[in-house]
Fold these 4 entries.
Entry 1:
Amino acid sequence: MDAKPLISVIIKTFNEASGIVGTIESVKAQLSLYPHKIIVADSLSTDSTQALAVSQGVTVVSLTNPSDRCCGVGPQLGYLYSEGEFILLLDGDMTLQEGFIEQAVSFLQENVDYAGVAGSVSMNEVDSYEFKSRQQRMDKIYPVGDCDHLGGGGLYRREAIEQIGYLTNRNLHAYEEAELGIRLKKSGYKLHRLATPFFYHVSYDMPSMELLKYRWKNKYVCASGELLRGGLQGGYFPEALKKVKNEAVFAVYLIVLFLALISTQLSLFGVVLLPLLAFFVLKWLKNKSYRDAAQSIINLSVFSAGLIKGLLRPVRDPNTPPEHTLIQK
């Protein structure tokens, strides 16, 4: 009988006190038959996340500089302490589902040209526009079959990661899995999503506008611009632009709309405004809600402004480890 492969599980966290114990317990249950190492990579939580993780007897490592906080830094921080043939990426508010690990490991062992594999996703229902929009696009966000990236995490082949230099880009406040997928595919690897349940995710339970303010404050909305900036320096700008084309197109449109407004030519402004009005009507008809249509425009405007802001942010070498401390080995 072949020996089971060693799997490192990297759980990225920031203020996940309500979910981290459940996440760790689900990992322990599903990996009980595999040699494994659980690593909680924390972005300097201000709640009891770190203490709770320590109480579970797992490796805990934390950032020491709050300015380093972002979605891309967590997995990369955990990767520094990882071991074994495979690496599983999760968030601290996810529950690993039964049966995924066996099928994922089997898939990667049988298909050596694939660098990573994920599964289907389920989540709780919350009353926000972002959640409704995500539910409408689940088949596009988490498509079953071969795909260009593994949104939400997945099981990755360490050998493939070592060939591309780093796991996730420490500069990115989102799109870290997309950027990873771009680099893996450019290196000749494939990615796949099984129909098997992978994780259950607890979404942010905030009103739409509060969530949008939170996204702006923590720089999540800057991620599209950060991805483009990284693409310019990393040689994957066309692929990055394809990922954020909606925000990019709308950012250009907003600039044109602003120029038309300050031109003082009302007829020109009216013509330029027509596409926005048409977009509002189409969204209204699709969602049967003028509030959702308005929220869609507000969200797209904020994320497009974030793209511009992200383009202007300084870029740090993604291969350079962030300042951090090992809390528990």
Entry 2:
Amino acid sequence: MTLSSSNHYVCFRGGILEKKSIFAHILEMETQMGQMHNDLGELKMIVKELLEENQRLTLENDQLRKVLKRESSPETPAPAPKIPVLHPVPAAESTEDVVGEGYDNLARLYYEGFHICNVYYGHLRTEGDCLFCLSFLNK
């Protein structure tokens, strides 16, 4: 950018602009840079969320592969994990047997590392025990 001898015009990228339009041009560039900054921040958040989801899905995939491997290897049957039955079901009533079977299935899912609570149902438990799930199991 160079000043002309009359001080009324400024050369800008090979063109001539009046001093008033230079200020307007600077304001426009500042607005565009602000928008680009906001867009970059949004893109960073999207990438962060995608990386977190990828990590969660990788952990869940590894967990599911372990379960599949354990269930599909017939030559070395692994002992089934002991699932404590917190509410024993009387064998006399068939409708309660079905409820007991559902409860046992949920308990098995929980001990395989998945949430069974209504908050995170089906998601992999990554941070130890879930109070919501334990509360549900103890009902």
Entry 3:
Amino acid sequence: MSTKAAAAKKSAEKEAQSWAAPIANVGPIPVTILTGFLGAGKTTLLNRILKENHGEKIAVIENEFGEEGVDNEILADSKEQIVEMNNGCICCTVRGDLIRILNNLYKRRAKGEFNFTRVVIETTGMADPAPVAQTFFADEKVNERYLLDAVITVVDAKHGMTQLKDFTEAQQQVAFADRLLVSKTDVTSEEETLKLMERLRKLNVRAPITKVNFGVTPIKELIDIRGFNLNAILDIQPDFLTNSDHEHHDEVASFYIKTDKPLDVRKVDRYIGSLINLYGEQMLRYKGILNIKGEPRRVVFQGVHMMAGFDFASEWPDDAKRESTVVFIGRKLPEALFRELFEDCYASDETPDDVKAYAQGSVV
């Protein structure tokens, strides 16, 4: 191990040991990641969060490489700092490790110095939000104390089409989002805006798209989205994929697989595992509801790059059509191969009618 790597490992271990214990009878703090390309309007939104009396206690973490800075008067100092605003929100700049600033905020909250109930993290205009999101899954201490709620991406209606054409980063920000906010629609025609929204739907089939005016958009519409909650109901509108009259050769794209055939959970597990091994770095987000043979409940899963998780949701209603829907969003994914391999997940006559048989070890 190199000297630099050893020092980084030692620093990470020291940080892990310094975490304050989870606050008793208080659940994890929800976190929203705010991203968007240069000039999309993130700063306008952050300034609203920090200054308006919206009734929420929010800690805003601003990346130091942001193109404009939240407020020059608030963050004029070049050193890392945490500032409490008049409306009760917290503003802090990031000078290095995100885990360290999350730890610092949590400890000060535990001591009663700050009283925030949620966190918003702004990424830079050229950043891929995936590494930030992975922090909340990969680090055990962070995972115990913070809950990733959603990734919100702001898109510039005036320049969005050009940015999506010229920059892979802009495509990735759209593809990774749980909610898309289209800004500056007041300076574009309705036709231009609709074309952009069609393009966004092609890149991300699952994220709702909203035209916003940050002067009137309620803050509460941007929180508690539960985009990373495995038990949240997956709402997919496949028609979005067929509405566009324009073809774009994007590096990032999304597609979905849907079937009413029951699945074998063992085969699904092998399927996802194989895809992660082969294409994990290219798979930005993937998520689905599964109809597993012998299981009365919906099985839900989602993943970010190399990390995936499964869980049980509510039972299938008696009058509901039992079908599986899976969405993949990524860079240069071989859609035809993903579809072909998925067919191997179908249950067969040998698949037990009771999934408990797997756990009992009687089926392999």
Entry 4:
Amino acid sequence: MMNKYLQGLEQTFIQEGGIKERMHKARTDYRRQQDERLAELERTLPLLQQQLTAAQQEAIRWKAAYEDLKQRALKAYYSQQAQIQALQQRLNESEQP
């Protein structure tokens, strides 16, 4: 029974290596994953920067359109307010004897 256990340990050591080898493999695998992730992020960065620039330009256009609409609405409001006051004044004048 002990021989089978020792043979199993030997087989595991042959296949997987010792603790230092497994630790080295774990570290290098982790570093490789990190390098791959960094490379992926570096590849996507220019696209994201381009999309950000486009979104900022779109926001500027929307802001300009909003300001234009706001100015036109205020101009129409004040114009109508002046007309309303003129009509009220004419109404008041016609009601006076």
